Structure formats: C-alpha cells, structure tokens
Amino acid sequence: MPSLPVIAVTMGESAGVGPDVCLRLLERMRQAPFTARLVVLGDRSLLAERAAALRLDGQLRDWDPSLPAQPDVLDVLHLPLAARVQAGRLDPANAPQVLALLDRALAGCRSGEFAAMVTAPVHKGVINDAGISFTGHTEYLAQRTQTPRVVMMLAGGGLKVALVTTHLPLKEVPAAVTPAALEETLRILHAEMGRKYGIARPRILVAGLNPHAGEAGYLGREEIDVIIPVLERLRAEEGMNLLGPLPADTMFSPPVLARGDCVLAMYHDQGLTALKYASFGHGINVTLGLPIIRTSVDHGTALELAGSGQADPGSLFVAVEQAIAMAERAGHED
User: What percent of the chain has pLDDT over 90?
Assistant: First the structure.
C-alpha cells in the first residue's frame, strides 16, 4: 500500500482558539478518518493543558513518521513557547513561536516531508507588537518562498472568491490595481483552478472597482483604463474565459454566479463580505501561486472563545479535507 500523505497543521496563536480547534481533529478522526496523516505543529504542553480543560478524549503523541496512524491519537511536532499561556490573553513573547510554526511547516512542505500545510489563525497585532513586521499568512509565505505574487482565495458556501489586493487600506486600493497586478493575478487564478480544482478552463467573473463598474467612466475610470484592456488582451491572447468587469453589488446574485466557476474581486471586503455571509465558520482560505499547498481557516483567533469549548472547528475540518484533496490531485499529476 502506498504511504499516506502527511498534512502539517499549525496551531496558530496560542492564546486563541487555534489549539482548541486543532485538538478537535481527534473527534473528526474518530468519526471519519482522513485519507492522510495529520501532524499538529505546536507546544505539546499547552495542547495537553487545553485538552484537559476542554475534557477532550484522546492521546497526544510526539510525531514519529514511523509509527502507524491511530484514530484516537493526535501526533504533535513540538515547538516550545517562550512563556506560559493564559487563554484569551495575548503575549508578544510568544509571537516568534507562531512564526516558527509556519517556518517549520513550510520547510517540511518544500522538502517533501509534508504534502501540504493547514494553518490555524494568528493574531497580526501581537506579532507586530513583538517588533516583527507581519501583514498576514499570505504575504509571509510569499516572502519566505520568494514568490513575487500570490493570490488569496477564499472558498465556501458554493463560492470561490480570489482577490487582486489583500490587506491594504481602502484609500490605497485604486493605485494597487495596476495592469500588471491584475494580469498576474488572473494568470495565477486561471492556472491554479486547474491544478487545485481540476477545472482546466475556468469561467472567471471579474468585478469592477467602482460602483456600477464605473458607469462608463462617470463613477471612475479604472475599469476603462485598467480592467477592460487587461481582460480583452487575455481573452484574445490566452483564450481565457473572463466575464466582466461586473458591478460588484449584483455579481453575487445567483443568476450571475451561475455563469462562473470563481470570482475575482478587486479588494478584500468587496469579495469576502459575500463569501463569509454564505459560509462563515465553514469557509477556507487557499493561497494560490505558492510552490506548496496551503489552506487555512477563514476565521480569526476569537480570543473570547479560547478554552471555552465553544469554538467551531468546522472551518479547520474543511481546510484539512481540501488540502488532502489538493495533495492527492497533485500526486496523480506527478
């Protein structure tokens, strides 16, 4: 029998719900085993404390790839915290460990030790409070892999929504929607829909930037000057199936969505407000364009729920399932 792929799951911010939802993977494995091995990267002592507080059944075991997978055992690759953790209370002293988890998972993916990585939520503020410049998982992994452009896409509720710009102040978005940025994003999205979802010629719904997609220039010229020329060129030169630019206020209506396989929004809240309404708690984040497979939960650290047992693990379960599916698809292509 071929060996199962190994999926690395990073614990995320230790004071948040990341440890809680990672531990709930034990429940999921007992109910329906994954078609892969999972290893949680985190502090083993904290995970044990949180498991006891939440009264979760199951055993934590130090990661050893030679040992067989068991449905009541959660394998843990131990990376220690600098300071003791109180659920719900951030501590900048532990911020380096959060990034160490990402670095270790990434190294394992690049070496072939892991087939994919799945990330629990981190807290950007406390990482910056520790004196480390950090804008998000997507940007961090792009920098670490020296990938010039990656694309953030969220999936859930029957939607797949990718973004041209991500974590930018709204006033900076128009200048960031350049012909090069739009073209590179579309090329990545087009290619990755084939690699990760098996859709060789995806129908991509492209939003305008301005209300009513600019209203023929009366409400802004970005559609005329940037978006339309790029779409026309990629249709003509690459044969891409691109619909738009479309008014964002009607793009998420069922008749329009039925015409596409995925959506490209120009900025964060333009695309993700609708997606999170449709799938909150069960959507996932997928980073397109990286040399590895990375999925993530679609929620934050939820500090107020940490250690309470009330955190919903649904998004993590879906993120793991999708990472496995993508790894299996990539394995079949090799």
Answer: 90
Mean of pLDDT values over 228-250: 97
Determine if the peptide bond prior to 211 is cis (ω within 30°).
no
66, containing H or E segment: none
Looking from the CA of 151 toward its CB, the CA atoms found within 13 Å total 27
Mean pLDDT across 149-167: 94
pLDDT of residue 1: 40
CA distances to 15, 133, 258 from 98, rounded to whole Å, are 11, 13, 40
* Residue extents of the structural domains in the chain: 1-147+290-334, 149-282
Residue 143 CB contacts under 8 Å (≥ 6 apart), including other chains: none
For 34, list phi and psi in degrees, rounded to 5. -75, 155
Cβ atoms within 10 Å, residue 223: 27
82/322 Cα distance (integer angstroms): 32
Radius of gyration in angstroms for the set of CA atoms belonging to the chain, rounded to a whole number: 20
Contacts of 169 (CB under 8 A, 6+ apart): none
Q: Which two tokens mark 116?
A: 């994919």
pLDDT tier for residue 179 given thresholds of 50, 70 and 90: very high
CATH classification for the domain delimited by 1-147+290-334, as one of 3.40.718.10, 3.30.70.1650, 3.40.50.150, 3.10.20.30 = 3.40.718.10
The mean pLDDT of the chain is 94
pLDDT tens string 289-319: 999 999 999 899 999 999 999 999 999 999 9
Report the pLDDT value the prediction gives residue 48, as an integer from 0 to 100. Answer: 96
Fold: same for 1-147+290-334 and 149-282: yes
DSSP string, 68-92: PP-TTEEEEEE---SS--BTTB--G
What is 149-282's CATH number, 3.40.190.170, 3.40.718.10, 3.40.50.300, 3.40.190.10? 3.40.718.10
